[in-house]
Design goal:
Number of domains: 1
Subcellular location: Mitochondrion inner membrane
Helix content: 40-55%
Radius of gyration: 38 Å
Keywords: Electron transport, Membrane, Mitochondrion, Mitochondrion inner membrane, Respiratory chain, Transmembrane, Transmembrane helix, Transport, Ubiquinone
Number of helices: 2
Main location: mitochondrion
Distance between the termini: 98 Å
Oligomer: single chain
Strand content: under 5%
Family: Belongs to the UQCRQ/QCR8 family.
GO biological process, one term: mitochondrial electron transport, ubiquinol to cytochrome c
Length: about 100
């Protein structure tokens, strides 16, 4: 069934449910439209967090796997350089390091 056309011709019919005046809204003068079904789901029946945990795990893995090559190599290089610097500093401040490089100061 095809819904009826909306007629915008103005009319003086009763406004609102049970003939109550609702203000300027609702009186467009058109007949009641038929053949349009409207469905709604109660807010209590919805599941707003449905699949959130599952989607979060897989989305996190997908994003991590696409970005790991951008941050892992600099992170590894910085770690190796820091380890070398700590080891070198400990050697230079030890007794053999001071004996080896005592003449340079």
């Amino acid at each position: 069934m095809r819904p009826s056309q909306i007629l915008r011709s103005g009319g003086d019919g009763e406004v609102g449910k049970y003939g109550k005046y609702l203000g300027p809204w609702g009186n467009f003068g058109s007949p009641v439209q038929k053949g349009v079904a409207s469905y709604a789901l109660s807010a209590n029946s919805q599941r707003p967090l449905a699949g959130t945990l599952n989607a979060a795990i897989f989305n996190t893995w997908r994003r991590f796997s696409h970005q790991v090559l951008y941050f892992a190599p600099p992170l590894i290089a910085a770690y190796v350089a820091m380890e070398w610097a700590i080891e070198r500093n400990e050697y230079l401040n030890s007794k053999p390091g001071r004996l080896e490089f005592a003449d340079e100061e």
